[in-house]
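Structure in, sequence out. Go:
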């Protein structure tokens, strides 16, 4: 008797991929949205790793782990060899430049 309902309004940024993903999840759940948000917030607060999930250091660590696994199982060996000098084209150089810029964060 007398349960008070507190309303909170959320504003999502459609340019942020994380916000768009959450909007998709919430719109696919016609019921229990409140329960989903409550569980997510409580998990986020109680799990210290959750706050750091998308940090630059965490991403770098995950990339290193993937590269180490690929080196260990040999799946990176075929990709690691640079193309012969006569095979390198301006398009290859641009692709490599773009890839290196992504790893540098710029």
């Amino acid at each position: 008797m007398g349960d008070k309902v507190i309303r909170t309004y959320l504003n999502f940024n459609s340019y942020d991929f994380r916000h768009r993903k959450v909007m998709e999840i919430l719109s696919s759940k016609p019921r229990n949205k409140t329960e989903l948000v409550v569980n997510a917030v409580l998990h986020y607060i109680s799990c210290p790793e959750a706050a750091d999930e998308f940090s630059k250091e965490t991403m770098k660590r995950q990339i290193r782990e993937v590269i180490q696994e690929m080196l260990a199982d040999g799946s990176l060996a075929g990709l690691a060899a640079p193309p012969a000098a006569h095979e390198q084209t301006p398009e290859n150089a641009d692709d490599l430049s773009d890839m290196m810029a992504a790893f540098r964060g710029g």
